[in-house]
Amino acid sequence: MADPRFYAARGPLTLAELAEIAGAAITDGADSARRFSDVAPLEDAGPNDVSFLDNRRYLDAFAASRAGACLVRPELAERAPTGMALLLTETPYRAYAHVARAFHPDVHPRPGVHVAAVVDPAARLAPGVTVAAGAMIGPRAEIGQHCNIGPNAVLGPGVVLGPDCTIGANASLSHCIVGARVVVYPGVRIGQDGFGFAMGQEGHLKVPQLGRVIIGDDVEIGANTCIDRGSAGDTVIGPGCIIDNLVQIGHNVRLGRGCVLVAQVGISGSTQLGDFVVIGGQGGLAGHLKVGSGVQIAAQSGVHRDIPAGQSMGGTPAVPIEEWRRQVARLRLLVKRRGD
Amino acid sequence: MADPRFYAARGPLTLAELAEIAGAAITDGADSARRFSDVAPLEDAGPNDVSFLDNRRYLDAFAASRAGACLVRPELAERAPTGMALLLTETPYRAYAHVARAFHPDVHPRPGVHVAAVVDPAARLAPGVTVAAGAMIGPRAEIGQHCNIGPNAVLGPGVVLGPDCTIGANASLSHCIVGARVVVYPGVRIGQDGFGFAMGQEGHLKVPQLGRVIIGDDVEIGANTCIDRGSAGDTVIGPGCIIDNLVQIGHNVRLGRGCVLVAQVGISGSTQLGDFVVIGGQGGLAGHLKVGSGVQIAAQSGVHRDIPAGQSMGGTPAVPIEEWRRQVARLRLLVKRRGD
Amino acid sequence: MADPRFYAARGPLTLAELAEIAGAAITDGADSARRFSDVAPLEDAGPNDVSFLDNRRYLDAFAASRAGACLVRPELAERAPTGMALLLTETPYRAYAHVARAFHPDVHPRPGVHVAAVVDPAARLAPGVTVAAGAMIGPRAEIGQHCNIGPNAVLGPGVVLGPDCTIGANASLSHCIVGARVVVYPGVRIGQDGFGFAMGQEGHLKVPQLGRVIIGDDVEIGANTCIDRGSAGDTVIGPGCIIDNLVQIGHNVRLGRGCVLVAQVGISGSTQLGDFVVIGGQGGLAGHLKVGSGVQIAAQSGVHRDIPAGQSMGGTPAVPIEEWRRQVARLRLLVKRRGD
Q1: Strand pairing of A35-36 and A13-14?
Q2: Residues C242 and C224: beta-carbon distance below 8 Å
Q3: Least CB-CB distance to A281: which of B224, B246, B268?
Q4: d(CA A125, CA B9)
Q5: Is B281 close to C201, i.e. CB distance below 8 A?
Q6: How confident is the model at residue A337 (pLDDT cuts 50, 70, 90)?
């Protein structure tokens, strides 16, 4: 199903090969030599496609699907339509990721610096780097092996990228040190001055921003997201963090490992997150807070206080999620009861 | 009034010509040969300008205006100052659009590829295309007649644009098929990977994003807005949708015809909207929802459930708008009554 | 502490010199000839560094700091660790700004137009202008003395910049007239069409946007922020305003002097702010409002009505901040009392 205009394809793959790639089990009596040519969503898949069921919301689509094979949890297998080959796994979405990549391996661009790129003579490029047309790399920048710098991207003086990073089109990075395998999406802004002003009626005085942005390995940073550099210390994004589009991260913010920030989240200056914190879309955090590891914050919540590790929060101002649900229910009841 | 530094001008136009352009009626005894040279807002307009009154909020400005002529609904005509020529219409704002365009017709750039643009030899450009300096067009891209590609815009491999599209400065498009007369504003990001990760404490595994973005005819996409491509199927923007600045549209989202998304709206993955849905600024929708045609969602609302067609919603979590108003009123009353 | 990879350094400076730069007093008996080499945050500073204490939240860090000197309010001086030289001032953050700039003066790029920039022959550049690689300057643009135009920035036809402006990488400006010393961050979008459509089921009709953006002196505009031009009159940003990242400013909005808009704020069309209005992160204002001078609006608030000068507001829909606090407290109490 993947449009060949945009995606390279490999295949077909047999059911046995798919089971191995996915770490999944085949049901007894299934034809392990049956061949499949692609992945597809449940509604669109045909007999040569592999699909997956991860969210129970799509159980009906699963039962009605014409997919030739499907990755599914064992307990839902009985809902499968007849004739569908099953690939049983406790983590169907993760398994699907492996299968999809097997059918459509990443394509690496041919290394080299495009004639219309501008690389400062004092920049250092490791072997295997690709620099697209219109990209600019400043003096003393250091670009790791096999990095791929997209069209019209701008890397300022002294920027350091570890190996295997991808920088999207029209992104700009300055004052930052980036780890390995980091993916920066198009239009991302990293390393610009933070919002540091000494305010006053006589005019707001800009405070020099003298820190950096430090980005760990395996981080993804979504399109048009902004990460300001530290004011004196550093802004730090821990390894494995995934950050969606249009997110704002203020100066001196520190994220631990594996945090997940959904689109349009905003984190004010100097706030610190532990590991594996998850913030829903459009959530906002005030500055100078400490948020413990494993905290989950509902979409659109507004956090004004420190949060201990492991807590789930919701609402503005945010309270423990169960309390927020009770508030919502109470408010509905009040209105229903009395009419107004 | 329009600054000649930025706008071409045509005119003058007579009251009779304006009435025809606007589809408006002239009042008895008006001088249909009277000439006007430009449009202007009520407060700034002079005797040679045409203005309009659409929002009752500006009735006082209308009554005090020095505009030579004004587009206005018949029932408000009696509020006009003496000497003002009236152009009577039930749709003054729409009529104003036609009049303004008559005074300031769109200027089309001279076709051709700038010497500082980079167009892959395997891209296909229809006649009449303009490609500005610094723009990049990838292999196998197909650009329709009279498209205008702005400075430093990036069109990835295989991207298809229908005729008469405008791509703003520094925008980037990949993995997308775009209809006719689509306007993409500066800094827009279309077609990048969606936020697809199989999450886990052992690390978040990226799921290959193998779909596309399909954009219908006559769509407008505001500055720095992001539209992620589908994960397996497509992200679809129906014909006639107008999307403001800094909006986030997740993977697999589907918008029907004529939807209106005001600035900073966020729509999570796989949510589907019917036709003519309107979402106020900063509104947020959770993923995997179905929102019926004609639904209206108030600014800053947070939607977590399906919404049947025609409903108006407000609040977080969103409820029918009348219920939300009662909640707000009740909360105010509680505070007033008891003091705290 | 500032990474020499990214920052130029000057120094050392004596305590006496620092006191003069900061407008601060030295305590009796301090060694005014003691030398310092840099600024650093309280936790990281060593004996050769100058730090500052502005927020009482960091009193413990102050008491434990190894900083050689610290800018501090006189009433907190007694909390200082022994051996720390004190620089007493009522405005430690403002004083820090001056000290930091003394150690790390701004570096001005060498004037000139990069060979990979594209400047229209009909543009006028004052002496001392720097134009980086990939930047585009359109016909009839006028660029003031010592302006610095970043890589891949795009300035449209007729754009006017006053002296000493900085335009960030990949920013785009059109239809605007900009004052002196304005800083435009990377990815900013200024002057594109506002969201002007005459809506209707038969299709939304675009209304020509014929105004401009007028930006006063000493304004800062954060990364990826969008400012639409006026529809007929102008969008106006008053002198000294500071605007954070990812902010949306609709057409015809007018900001007075010294307004502060924190990240992800959205202001709808035709709303007018007085002087020194402060809006917290993710706050939203409906269109056609008047907000008086000195108004403060809490983060994430949603404003739907005019606000008189000097008022503080919070909540959605926004109410006076004390009333909002009572609403929040009442809701918490209701849930606690009755359980649900």
Answers
A1: antiparallel
A2: no
A3: B268
A4: 51
A5: no
A6: low
pLDDT average, residue stretch A125-151: 98
Q: What is the pLDDT of residue A339?
A: 47
* Residues sharing a CB contact under 8 Å with residue A283, sequence separation 6 or more, in sequence order: A262, A265, A266, A297, A298, A299, A300, A301, A302, A303
Alpha carbon A113 to its chain's center: 28
A62 to chain B, any CB pair closer than 8 A? The answer is no
For residue B339, pLDDT over 70 is answered with no
Residue A304: CB atoms within 10 A of its CB come to: 15
Is C200 within 8 Å of B90 (Cβ atoms)?
no
Residue B59 to residue B75: CA distance in whole angstroms: 12
Assigned token pair, B106: 């769109």
What is the pTM (predicted TM-score) of this model? 0.96
Phi, psi of A161 (to 5 degrees): -115, 135
Q: Flag if A152 and C150 touch (Cβ within 8 Å).
A: no
* CATH code, residues C171-323: 2.160.10.10
Q: What is the DSSP letter of B284?
A: E
pLDDT of the residue at B1 = 67
pLDDT band at A1 (very low <50, low <70, confident <90, very high): low
Is the distance from CB of A32 to CB of A13 less than 8 angstroms? no
Per-residue pLDDT tens over the stretch C268-290: 999 999 999 999 999 999 999 99
Question: Is a pLDDT exceeding 80 seen at residue B340?
Answer: no
Q: What's the pLDDT tens digit per position in B86-109?
A: 999 999 999 999 999 999 998 888
Return mean pLDDT, chain B.
95
Residue with tokens 């009449």: B128
Q: How many CA atoms does the CB half-sphere of B134 hold within 13 Å? A: 35
**Domains C13-103 and C171-323 equal at CATH topology level:** no
Q: What is the DSSP annotation of B155-185? A: E-TT-EE-TT-EE-TT-EE-SEEE-SS-EE-
Residue A207 at interface with chain C, using a CB cutoff of 8 Å: yes
Q: Using alpha carbons, list the distances in angstroms from residue B5 to A4, A218, B193, C118.
A: 46, 48, 40, 20
Which CATH number is A13-103 given? 3.40.1390.10
pLDDT recorded at residue A334: 87
Read off the pLDDT of residues B43-76 as tens digits, 9 standing for 90 and up: 999 999 999 999 888 999 999 999 999 999 999 9
Q: What residues in A contact B140, CB-CB < 8 Å? A: 5
**C12, burial (CB in 10 Å: exposed 0-12, middle 13-18, buried 19+):** middle
C contact chains, 3+ CB pairs < 8 A: A, B
Q: Is A254 on the interface with C (CB under 8 A)?
A: no
Average pLDDT, chain A: 95
Q: Which chains touch A (3 or more CB pairs under 8 A)?
A: B, C
Instruction: Determine how β-strand B13-14 pairs with β-strand B49-52.
Output: unpaired
* Domain boundaries, given as residue ranges, for chain B: 13-103, 171-323
Active site residue B251: yes
Measured CA to CA in angstroms, residue B199 lies from A53, A101, A278, A310, C150 at distances of: 16, 17, 11, 17, 38
Residue A175 neighbours by CB under 8 Å, 6+ apart: A156, A158, A159, A191, A211, A212, A213, A229, C3, C6
Write down the pLDDT at residue C143: 98
DSSP bridge pairs for A177 = A160, A214
Tell me which long-range contacts C62-69 makes (C-beta under 8 A, separation of at least 24).
Answer: C67/C40, C67/C42, C68/C34, C68/C36, C69/C15, C69/C18, C69/C34, C69/C36
**CB neighbour list of residue C4: distance below 8 Å, 6 or more residues apart:** none
Q: Which residue of B has its CA nearest to C141?
A: B5
Within 185-204 of B, beta carbons closer than 8 Å to A belong to 187, 189, 192-193, 195, 197-201, 203-204
DSSP 8-class letter at B23: T
Q: For residue C154, what are its two tokens?
A: 């795009």
